[in-house]
Amino acid sequence: MKRELLIPLLRRADANINSVPVPAALENRVRESLARAQARGSAGRQRRLNLVFAIATTAVALLAALAIEHRTSRSACMSVNQELMSLEGGCTVDLPQLRIETTGEVHLRQTGNGFEMLDGSALFAVTPVPAGHPPLRIRVSGGTIEVIGTRFRVHERKTGGTIELMEGTIRFIFPDGKVSVLHAGETLRWGVPDGSDSQGPGAARTGESDRAIGGPPAAGSSSESSIDRVGIEVSSADGGTNDSDRVTDVTLENIEPGRVPPAADIRRRFDALGREESYTEAEQLRLQLEPVSFELGEAYEREHAPTGRICAHWRWHLQRFPSGIYNGSIRAKLTHLHCPSVDP
Amino acid sequence: MSAPSDRLDRAEVIERLYEQHKQAVFTLALRYGRGDIGWAEDVTHDVFVDLFDVIDRLADTDDLGRWLYRVTTNRCLNKLKRQQWWERPLVRFVLRSTSPAAGFDPEAVTIARGDLRNAFDAVNQLTPKERVVFYMRHIDGFDQSAIARTLGFSKGYVSKLLKRAQHALERQGWEVGDET
Question: Are A75 and A93 in contact (CB under 8 A)?
Fold first, then answer.
């Protein structure tokens, strides 16, 4: 079947349309509109622009107010009074990078880059902080928790508190500035430094402790003295934490709860921290890398790595952190292992 | 010269320009408005009111025909796109609106003859962009670069629209020819 040619027909149709006269009424309409425009002059145009600007400003202000409302008052169970946040029990609050689930009434105070937990019991789930950004800090009576992304439960009471770490690692900074790393499945307890509580540090978990954080088991290290002062104890999750709270999918670190991490895992973390050297503040890097480096050396020892390798690591550590908090212990280890001496 | 007399002069200029160009603008609007006279009147009115606001900024009123062509075409295109949204079945169902082609009167636009009417209807079934680009290319004789400049599209996009339009019309049984 032969198809009909469209373009010639369309041209003729268009020519017919061309012959349709402009309605006379349109001329009057245009003339009236021009007269109105003439009367308005530029003032009318300016008024329209002002109106558009006012609407846009109002919209932006409303959005900003909603955003602020969204940030500061996420839930009916949360009340905010200046920097103090009160959360009822059973409350879930989603904040940027952080979810808080309370089991009892919790009081928090907002600080520069995190919160101070005043009392209560809550689960914190922190989304991974992008590389190069400061960690989230949660201050408790026993020190400061630094988190770059993990889940943990904090119980804060007048007599002290505990942290139960469910996945990944967190850094705990003691009041005297010393730092230790807590691993998944571990529980950290503290009592107030001058406390006279009957459930003082270690009272509930005596015999369970398998690792005191902040330093090696060797006597005389400076971190041990800090542990004594604030009454810190770390216990394995084997018998300590509530199983219902423990996660099975460890995302940040491939560390099973209740198991001492192997040297390979620590090495991976150590290497990752080393790679961040170019964009991490030197002091922050030192604080992060130093305890991991110490852990790595200990893991080498635990796994009976060749003595030369252990010695080389400890020597590297002393050179990299000449004023490190573990150095007394490390020098003792070098002596104990009969490592060749090294020039400072 | 004082401001009021400026405005007076400007209104007079627009009225004179309206007399000169009203047929071209109206015809263009009538074409893109599927022969709807009321629709074309609205577009023509708005184009000349726009002209009142910008006439002082137009560098060369001798070239006003080209400016009016561009503004009218774009105004029609924008109006058609808005109309397309309102013509969506769901929107029409929600608003209980009637058929959008109510204003079309084939007798009034003198294309009631069967084959012309069929050709006109076939092009009117294209999307607004395809329809405008198709008319500009095949009836007004613009090349793809000129169409792209007038509508603010890329040349590649114009080519794509032309191909789509051609395929759509061929699917309806028309022979478009290979002029794209």
Answer: yes
CB A131 within 8 A of CB A279: yes
In terms of DSSP bridges, do strands A4-5 and B174-175 run parallel, antiparallel, or are they unpaired? Answer: parallel
Which whole-number Å values give the CA distances from B177 to A8, A141, A307, in the listed order? Answer: 11, 84, 86
Q: Which residues of chain B are within 8 Å of residue A28 when distances are taken between CB atoms? A: none
Nearest residue of B to residue A45, measured between CA atoms: B53
Q: Do the Cβ atoms of A35 and B11 come within 8 Å?
A: yes
Helix locations, chain A, DSSP H: 6-18, 24-72, 222-230, 237-240, 263-275, 282-302, 307-320, 327-336
CB within 8 Å: B52 and A34: yes
Q: Hey, of A38, A42, A46, A48, which one would you mutate to test binding to chain B, going by the most B CBs within 10 A of its CB?
A: A38
* 344 residues of chain A, pLDDT tens digit each: 456 788 888 888 888 888 888 888 888 888 888 888 777 665 556 667 778 888 888 888 788 767 655 554 445 687 777 678 888 888 887 776 778 888 888 888 877 667 888 888 888 888 776 655 677 788 888 888 888 767 888 888 878 888 888 777 788 887 777 777 777 777 888 776 544 333 333 323 222 333 333 333 333 333 332 333 233 344 443 333 333 333 222 222 333 334 466 788 778 777 766 655 554 555 555 656 777 888 888 888 888 888 988 999 999 888 888 877 778 888 888 888 888 865 54
Q: Which residues pair with A111 in a beta bridge?
A: A114
Rg (alpha carbons) of chain B, rounded to whole number: 18
CB contacts of B173 in chain A (<8 Å) are 3-4
Interface of B with A in 91-110 (CB under 8 A): 108-110
**CA–CA distance, A187 with B144 (Å, rounded to integer):** 72
Does B47 lie at the interface with A, CB-CB under 8 angstroms?
no
Above 0.85 for ipTM, yes or no?
no
Q: How far is A92 from chain B (nearest CA, A)?
A: 39
Q: Determine if the pTM surpasses 0.80.
A: no
- Divide the 180 residues of chain B into consecutive groups of 10 and give the mean pLDDT of each group: 53 85 92 87 91 78 82 91 68 54 55 76 90 92 92 93 92 74
Mark A290-324 as b/e (b = at least 16 C-beta within 10 Å).
Answer: bbbbbbbbbbbbeeeeeeeebbebbbebbeebeeb
d(CA B157, CA A29): 37
Give the one of A13, A33, A35 whose C-beta lies nearest to B111's C-beta: A13
Q: Angle CA(A283)–CA(A284)–CA(A286) in degrees, nearest 5?
A: 65
Pairing status of strand A92-95 against strand A84-87 = unpaired
Q: In this structure, are residues A203 and A162 in contact, taking their beta carbons and an 8 Å threshold?
A: no
Q: Which amino acid is at A21?
A: P
